[in-house]
Amino acid sequence: MNITVKQLNRFGLLVTGPFFGVLLWLMLAQVSVTLPGSAHPSAPEGPSALAPESTQALIGSLDTAKQTAIQTAQSIKRTVQLYTKTNESMNAIAKTTAAQAGRPALIYDRRITRKIGAPSKTIQSGNITAQLFAIHAQNFNGYALKVKLKSPEAMRMVLGKDKLGGAETTLAAVRRYKAIAGVNAGGFADSGSKRYPLGTTMVNGEYAGSFEPTRKDLFFVGLNDELKLVGGKFASQAQLDRLQPKFGASFVPVLMKNRVIQPIPAKWQTSPSRAPRTVIGNYKDNQLLFLVVDGYNENGGSGATLFEMQLLLSRFGVIDGYNLDGGGSSSLVFDGRIVNHPSDGQLRLLPTHFLFFD
User: Fold this and answer.
1) pLDDT digits (tens, 9 = 90+) for 33-76
2) Of 213, 221, 246, 251, which has the fewest Cβ atoms less than 10 A away?
3) In this protein, which residues make up the domain named Phosphodiester glycosidase (predicted)?
4) Contact, 283 vs 227, CB < 8 A?
5) How far apart, in whole angstroms, are the C-alpha atoms of residue 172 and residue 179?
6) Adjacent-strand bridge partners of 190
7) CA gap 143, 183 in Å, rounded
8) Rounded distance, CA 64 to CA 139, Å?
């Protein structure tokens, strides 16, 4: 048999490996091993000879290690239980905090909603909450549309047939865009076969036409990138651009600013005195309120006065309010149907519409 030195070394390592492993463990465990006085001890005599001091020390160390392991396991178990309990407590606190954080907004919404009444229909999604209400006053009947926008995709303003000078009914715009609701927007002027929006008009963050400084009591009203209602009279484009409007239209007059009823120019108090009306307003939490009032015609014998619209805005807790195009232009479409009763007997072709999406 030819056995090399290398093979002998490997065999030696295999044989002595366990011994060195035990010796290393004893050193790390700080176990004291006392060798007997004689290198050739005599045969053991009696039961006590079966457990030399080194073996007793080793057994003691093993017992100590066992107890330490048990205590460590118990400590780990208690730590895991404490962690689990703490985690459950933190989750409960987080849920409570989230619920409490939304509570003021919920309370405010309930408060303003009660002032309008009970909604006849609600459409709710991740983008929007839209509620429809009926309004019954002494001199007129109408409707309120309260809208909470939850994303920038929830509302937009469109041009009639998507072009300057184009016109279509609000119902046609709603159907074309597959919107859940629509309201007429700004005023207009006819030129030949074209119908152009009055004053400054913005669509998709760009001016439709060009900026027009405030004149003859015209205002601009629309929404900015933060879904906040912005509006008023603007002498320069830079003044309006600072508000970063995303879309908006123009008409007359401003009805309310910072909860204060605004003076109505004499011309608009009697031209006409009563009429179908469309009004836009906002709440302090940026919800929007649209009021659409019915009337038989535009001759001043039916519908609401602008002062009555101001009273409604104030009663409903609105912050700012603006009069949109009224008369035969007043249009409210909700959930695929025409809600109001257009004074023309049918919806009018209009150049601008506010649309809402779920």
Assistant:
1) 454 444 444 444 544 444 567 777 777 777 787 788 788 778 77
2) 213
3) 178-357
4) no
5) 10
6) 195
7) 11
8) 95
